[in-house]
């Protein structure tokens, strides 16, 4: 079919810490249960930048060249022999985590916790920041006509927000504090509001990010300074809401912010930890324990793509404003540099030469 005309598969490959290259890779051949996708839009995540700058995230270490990218949408150009759910020409969003075995986690519906899961752009698994990419057909989800490729790519960060809000128990009338107004804090805001949160406070060091948060529906933007004390900040949050929030979603990983999250949350409430900081973090554990504040972790997401597509198709959630910059795939290094400098919110790479539209 048409993709045979264009034999090149330009890919963004991290060779080692600091060594990011654009190089040609062979076009992969899909297996029986896979589809070959012509990638269209791929977002850059903080984790992609972190691997580039540091060569590792915790125990995940880049030991051999790895294609980056895991926030992706594209078009099916070839279908494996056993695939039933997709056909050539289908526009799809890609769920980057694919379980490799039917273990207890898979069976219980928590497949994100399976220790052997494949995950795009987590060493040693290649991501999809390239022109052509093959993926398990079961983890490619057809996009309705009224959902763009970029919105399809944004389902990945949106899924973190959905999973976090589910873990938090956000429901009609919840009051919520969100620490951090980067892309993940902002998707948590969007999802919390869509799930019925009545009041959302969102905090950040950057006033610019809080402008975006306000536009996306935050009730109370809270500009914080590095020197602010956690207990004092908790009091400020309580003052804004005239009560402590039921739920705090912590998206920074910064020790003082995790402390603020615990102090700020109402007795019997929930703190969800989304941001990743130091392996060892000092927190007021007794404060949480004596007030029955539950502290819950989040590892990526599971079972979120169908809900996310429904939310976008029904216009219950609008993620489009998150995209502030676009670069063609050829300018990937510049796009990564822009992300590293903290410019904009979400930076999108356009992988299809013939279609650079959203």
Automatic annotation (TrEMBL):
Residues 18-349 form the Enoyl reductase (ER) domain. CDD domains: sorbitol_DH. Its cofactor is Zn(2+). SMART domains: PKS_ER. GO terms for molecular function: L-iditol 2-dehydrogenase (NAD+) activity; zinc ion binding. GO terms for biological process: sorbitol catabolic process. It is found in: Cell projection, Cilium, Flagellum. GO terms for cellular component: motile cilium. Keywords: Cell projection, Cilium, Flagellum, Metal-binding, NAD, Oxidoreductase, Zinc. The keyword tRNA-binding does not apply. Belongs to the zinc-containing alcohol dehydrogenase family. This is Sorbitol dehydrogenase. It comes from Oncorhynchus kisutch (Coho salmon). The lineage of its organism: Eukaryota, Metazoa, Chordata, Craniata, Vertebrata.
